[in-house]
Design brief:
There is one protein chain. This protein folds into two domains: about 5-60, Multidrug-efflux Transporter Regulator, Chain: A, Domain 2 (Orthogonal Bundle), CATH 1.10.1660; about 85-240, Mannitol-specific EII, Chain A (3-Layer(aba) Sandwich), CATH 3.40.930. It has ten helices and eight strands. It has helices at about 10-15, 20-25, 45-55, 60-75, 85-90, 105-115, 125-135, 195-210, 215-220, 225-240; strands at about 5, 35, 40-45, 95-100, 140, 145-150, 165-175, 185-190. The protein has a five-stranded mixed beta sheet with strand order 4-7-8-6-5, with helices on both faces. Strands 1-3-2 form a three-stranded antiparallel beta sheet.
Length: about 240
């Protein structure tokens, strides 16, 4: 699956993009593609990497526009309800006293946290290897002390059900954030469906940028409070979309 080629229409729908936006990316060669005669083809493996890096790097205005587009397309495709945090993350998926102190131990312990959800179908080493590959391409850490970890490839066999785990580190770790500051909040996004993954990634970015979520996660005294902050932030991000 990661190596298959997609047509222009398939890629446009996969990325939740409007035709004009997609055509502009192709015209300006901002998106990786191959040409066979008059046909533009897109290698899924390259598109996955490009898409996640693009979402993490969007400005607030462009992220908001993308999130609005992806919300409409995901709803139309019946991939998810309007809100989905409630079914993706439970209180037991949250670690408020995360002791990892290095990049390697962060990845390892986040995979261990994923195992506890009982939604991990494949060998945990597969997930760890995929996370390591993704971080080697470009850090998933963002300004503000947050990282949105995710595997490089999303294969349906890896998870019995989509989920998110969250860890609040006791010792902030330098994780490659663009502002050079350490990271203390780590999400791990594990989605069965690639298109849903991109939508979840965009929504979490919006929640962090447009609501007081990060401050609330840092000051919450329990996993229940942290989860409630997530649910409230999701509703707020949808309201202002």
């Amino acid at each position: 699956m990661p190596h298959r080629l997609m047509t222009a229409d398939e890629t446009m729908h996969y990325l939740h993009l409007a035709r004009t936006d997609f055509d502009a990316l192709v015209r300006d060669r901002e998106i990786p593609f191959e040409k066979q005669g008059d046909r533009f083809l897109f290698r899924k493996k390259e598109i996955d990497t490009w898409a996640s890096r693009r979402i993490l790097g969007l400005t607030e205005k462009r992220l908001k526009a993308y999130h609005r587009q992806s919300s409409a397309k995901v709803a139309a495709a019946a991939l998810s309800a309007t809100t989905f945090m409630e079914r993706l993350i439970a209180t037991e998926f949250i670690a408020p006293h995360f002791g990892a102190k290095t990049r390697a131990s962060i990845l390892r312990d986040m995979v261990a946290l994923a195992e506890k959800t009982e939604r991990l179908s494949s060998d945990s080493k597969d997930l760890l290897d995929s996370l390591t590959e993704r971080e080697a391409l470009c850090s998933t850490a963002l300004a503000g002390g947050i990282a949105l970890l995710h595997p490089r490839h999303h294969e349906p066999y890896m998870f019995s059900e989509s989920f998110i785990v969250l860890a609040r580190a006791l010792h902030p770790v330098h994780f490659g954030a663009p502002d050079g500051r350490p990271t203390d909040l780590f999400f791990l996004i594990c989605c069965q469906d690639d298109r849903l993954h991109l939508h979840v990634l965009a929504r979490l970015c919006c929640m962090c940028q447009q609501t007081p979520l990060l401050e609330q996660l840092r000051t919450s005294s329990s996993t229940a409070e942290m989860r409630e902050a997530l649910l409230a932030a999701e509703h707020e991000s949808i309201r202002v979309a």
